[in-house]
Amino acid sequence: MGNQPSTPIQTCLSTAVGGEGSLVAFSNEPLYRAKDVNRYNLNVPVAPVAITYPKTVDQVSEIVKCAADGGYKVQARGGGHSYANHALGGGDNNTIVVDMKNFQHFSYDPETQRAKIGAGHQLGDVTDKLHKAGGRAMSHGTCPQVGLSGHATIGGLGPTSRLWGSALDHVEEVQVVLANSSVVTASWAENPDLFFAIKGAGASFGVVTEFTVRTQPEPGEAVQYQYTFNFGDTSSRAELYKAWQKFISDPELPREMASQIILGERSVTVFGTYFGSKKDFEALQIETAFPSSQSRNITVLNDWLGVVAAWAHQSAIDLAGDIPAHFYAKSMPFRQKNLPSGELIDKIFHYLDNTPKGTPLWFIICDLEGGKINDIPVDKTAYSHRDTLYWMQSYAINLLGPVSETTYKFLNGLNDLIAEGLSEPNPGAYPGYVDPQLSKPQEAYWGENLPRLKQIKAKYDPQDVFHNPQSVPLPDDQAA
């Protein structure tokens, strides 16, 4: 039980959750920052006014009303993995957080093959419950602790996205609490403009409490492959990257093939999954695409949960899984018509080998997308990066304290080098990998969909209640 409420907003929020002390925490309570705030990126300070843990949609509605009436901002928190702590306000000291962890309801309709999933689920739980519902699945990322709440309203890319689309492409309907505290349904048949916005920019428009998603049969046999290269010289690693890019940019590459290349200090790993038989995998002759590797691991998996567990293991290796840390990350999309040239790739690897990094813990993941994601028109959903062939995600972690200016300069310099070397401007950043140092983040995240999103924002949230430092703004002539 927390302290007795002493301010108008504390009284209002306590009433909103029925006076149940465990469902709201205030900044003047012991252990508030460690237990309730629990920021993911230790490099980004945050000071939310309160963290709420509603159990019902009505309680969410009352919390939003308290915030709107009192002039506070609201952000929902699922898994809490925002790279800039946006689920906690992202540095805004005027935010009330709606933590969704109590929304764990789940049901599956075998006739429609749709599932209703409470917004408090983490991806690992989604996998398990869909599996138990009859061997069903949906696209999502590889870290099991990531929350569905943010993942399916930002993008939600993962190894099956080439086959099935992103996580948000599975969403057929949502229940959402709006800024005026009303509870509405959004789908292509009902409030379609709101639905468009939720599918890629959800944090700016409301608190989603439930997702209705289409599901797929679980894949049968799958092949997990990993090739590790430890070339000491710059040119050999650059040539390997060129070979990987050539391999994944083949228009005939099957959608069953997921692939990523991971760059570290003097090492390169090619990792991925082929959704099919080992015979079909071997027919692709993937090994002929690359120089001889020092380490090769091919695993045939007939168990879907085993496939997902392998992804989770790799995710934990890449970014320490669910452990908070001081880190900085950037992202950049590459399109089929505007890929790095061989000359630019040589410059990239020269930069990586000769630039101070400020930390030994850095890595770059290039993740193949395309396929089904590209089939959907850019103006169909708020998620705008439909023509991306692969994403480059660069990370640097400091276990000893704040990220240094040297590290910021290293990652920003890498992106600047690439942007300057491409044949065409290559704007864009993945909205799921928020970057607090972007100069025009909204344009980078939502591209040509941003003007439409601003108009929808003015309609559903004219006072900008659902706000973080990089959320969709109101139109210039209607700014609150």
Description:
- The protein is of the alpha+beta class.
- It has 16 helices and 18 strands.
- The chain folds into 3 domains: 92 residues, Uridine Diphospho-n-acetylenolpyruvylglucosamine Reductase, domain 2, CATH 3.30.43.10; 113 residues, Uridine Diphospho-n-acetylenolpyruvylglucosamine Reductase, domain 3; 192 residues, 3-Layer(aba) Sandwich (Vanillyl-alcohol Oxidase, Chain A, domain 3).
- The protein is 32% helix and 22% strand.
- Helix 12 packs antiparallel against helix 14.
- The protein is globular and about 65 Å long.
- The model has no long low-confidence stretch (mean pLDDT 93).
Biggest β-sheet: count, sense, barrel?
7 strands, antiparallel
Residue windows where pLDDT falls under 50 for at least 5 positions: none
- Spatial extent as radius of gyration: 22 Å
What is the correct CATH architecture of the largest domain?
3-Layer(aba) Sandwich
| Class from secondary-structure proportions | alpha+beta
Mean pLDDT, nearest integer?
Answer: 93
| CATH topology title of the largest domain | Vanillyl-alcohol Oxidase, Chain A, domain 3
Discrete helix count: 16
* Structure summary, number of beta strands: 18
User: Regarding CATH, which class of the largest domain?
Assistant: Alpha Beta
Helix content: 25-40%
Biggest sheet, strands in spatial order? 15-12-14-13-17-18-16
End-to-end separation in angstroms reads: 36 Å
Q: In total, how many domains does the architecture comprise?
A: 3
Strand content: 15-25%
Characterize the overall form. Answer: globular
